[in-house]
């Protein structure tokens, strides 16, 4: 029974070991497997012990029953024979057979092995717990170290970005002529004022005074700005420009540097810039700079990006667009403020507004619109009407190159524009080129032909080209009569009918294309 009790204690100990190993099985898989094997062995021994107890009880009951009936008591040898192999329950140790003693030795050896194994697993479990706690402490320490390191790195990055932003703001405040600090704010303001680039932006900078180079906005500049706005409102015809007031905080006293910065920031917008200088003796010079009036920005594959920092030449800096520059010298202003100086300023502003409008109309004509300003300008502003006609005539060629106008329509408009401002020689040359109208074929082409004849006949009559006008008029009358006949008879277009029309009308156009 001492052995059985010892085996039971081993079973309880194995259970405790198994529970302890189960707590740390996540970190000690090998120890968990070993403890599981020991537990299985302990269960097997418990089952064997229970069977021995049950068999011994049955034997005692059988022996008591046999004694009560008067029969002979069984001998020890017979009891041993009745026991199953390896049974040590009912036989005293001094009566064990060699087989029983060998079995007992094996049990003791197994118990010693299990005790040793239990001690070893307990020690491994304790060491594993210590190592696991040490590993957890190291991981926690590493996490805290990396967290502190990341916090220091993030703080350094924030400090760097903040210092960089402050440096950029200081750089912009020092160098920019704009009232707004950052370039993207200026670009956004221009976009909003010009209806997303559908109108050129008119921007005016205060005049630079050589006698007071550090002046900001003085009364002289305020007076001229008021006169310029008034002159722009009095321009005839539709609105050609979008005025953007208050864009600059100082005169462009750095000259080319300021102009470069302005074109760099507004590289994606059509712009007309008016600025100037009042030199010693109050002599006045008005400078007009314009760019992107031929549709360069809209025709580009990608719009230029607004630079992050003014005056830089890094990958973010857009190419500065080419500009048209005009310089208009004027007589000296009266030194004393009064009605006379206001009158001179108003006259200068009227001329400057007219020149700016002439340049701004290039943008609209290059976009496919018809020229109108040359016929609406006041004759007292001569030679502005002629300058407007010459400029818009060139822009008509640009609209043809961009596919927005037919070449014949552009030639007729150029001839009419030249004739309206008294430029007879270029009007005559252009009108004769326009006479080679393309031969009409379909009904739409015949209608287009008649519309072009209506536009060209007044020019020919004004230029005293009676023969050409008579031939063109006869051709148009023949085509119009034939068109009326077709409409009355309900006939469709056909190649044979077109040949009959050309034969009867005597149309002068014999070419195969726009150039005759």
UniProtKB/TrEMBL annotation:
Positions with biased composition (Basic and acidic residues): 98-110, 136-154
Region (Disordered): 58-110, 136-156, 483-516
Positions with biased composition (Polar residues): 87-97
Biased segments, Acidic residues type: 491-500
Protein name according to UniProt: Uncharacterized protein
Organism: Streptomyces alboflavus
Origin organism lineage: Bacteria, Bacillati, Actinomycetota, Actinomycetes, Kitasatosporales
């Amino acid at each position: 029974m001492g052995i059985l009790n010892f085996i039971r204690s081993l079973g309880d100990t194995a259970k405790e070991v198994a529970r302890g190993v189960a707590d740390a099985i996540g970190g000690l898989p090998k120890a968990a497997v070993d403890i599981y094997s020991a537990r299985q062995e302990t269960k097997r021994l418990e089952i064997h012990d229970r069977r021995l107890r049950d068999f011994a009880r049955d034997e005692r009951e059988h022996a008591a029953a046999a004694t009560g009936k008067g029969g002979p008591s069984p001998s020890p040898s017979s009891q041993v024979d009745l026991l199953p192999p390896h049974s040590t329950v009912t036989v005293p140790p001094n009566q064990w057979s060699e087989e029983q003693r060998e079995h007992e030795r094996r049990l003791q050896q197994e118990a010693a092995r299990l005790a040793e194994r239990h001690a070893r697993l307990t020690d491994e479990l304790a060491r594993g717990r210590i190592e696991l706690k040490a590993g957890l402490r190291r991981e926690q320490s590493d996490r805290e170290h990396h967290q502190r390191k990341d916090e220091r790195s993030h703080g350094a990055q924030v400090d760097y970005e903040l210092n960089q932003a402050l440096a950029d703001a200081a750089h912009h405040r020092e160098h920019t002529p704009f009232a707004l600090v950052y370039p993207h704010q200026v670009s956004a303001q221009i976009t909003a004022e010009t209806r997303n680039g559908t109108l050129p932006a008119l921007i005016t900078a205060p005049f630079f005074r050589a006698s007071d180079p550090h002046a900001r906005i003085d009364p002289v500049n305020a007076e001229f700005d008021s006169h310029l706005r008034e002159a722009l409102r009095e321009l005839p015809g539709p609105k050609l420009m979008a005025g953007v007031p208050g864009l600059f905080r100082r005169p462009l006293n750095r000259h080319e540097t300021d102009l470069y910065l302005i074109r760099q920031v507004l590289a994606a917008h059509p712009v007309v810039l008016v600025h100037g200088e009042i030199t010693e003796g109050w002599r006045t010079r008005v400078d007009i700079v314009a760019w992107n009036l031929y549709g360069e920005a809209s025709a580009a594959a990608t719009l230029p990006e607004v630079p992050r920092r003014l005056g830089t030449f890094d990958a973010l800096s857009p190419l500065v667009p080419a500009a048209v520059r005009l310089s208009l010298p004027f007589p000296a202003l009266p030194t004393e403020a009064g009605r006379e100086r206001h009158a001179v300023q108003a006259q200068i502003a009227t001329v400057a507004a007219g020149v700016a409008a002439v340049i701004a109309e290039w943008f609209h004509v290059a976009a496919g619109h018809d020229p109108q300003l040359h016929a609406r300008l006041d004759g007292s502003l001569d030679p502005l009407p002629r300058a407007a006609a010459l400029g818009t005539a060139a822009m008509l060629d640009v609209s043809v190159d961009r596919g927005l106008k037919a070449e014949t329509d552009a030639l007729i408009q150029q001839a009419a524009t030249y004739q309206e401002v008294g430029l007879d020689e270029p009007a005559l040359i252009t009108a004769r080129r326009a006479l080679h109208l393309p031969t009409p074929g379909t009904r739409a082409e015949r209608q287009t032909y008649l519309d072009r004849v209506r536009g060209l006949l007044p020019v020919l009559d004004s230029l005293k080209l009676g023969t050409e006008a008579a031939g063109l008029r006869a051709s148009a009358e023949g085509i119009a009569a034939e068109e009326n006949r077709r409409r009355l008879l309900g006939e469709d277009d056909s190649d044979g009918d077109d040949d009959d029309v050309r034969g009867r009308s005597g149309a002068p156009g014999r070419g195969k294309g726009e150039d005759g």
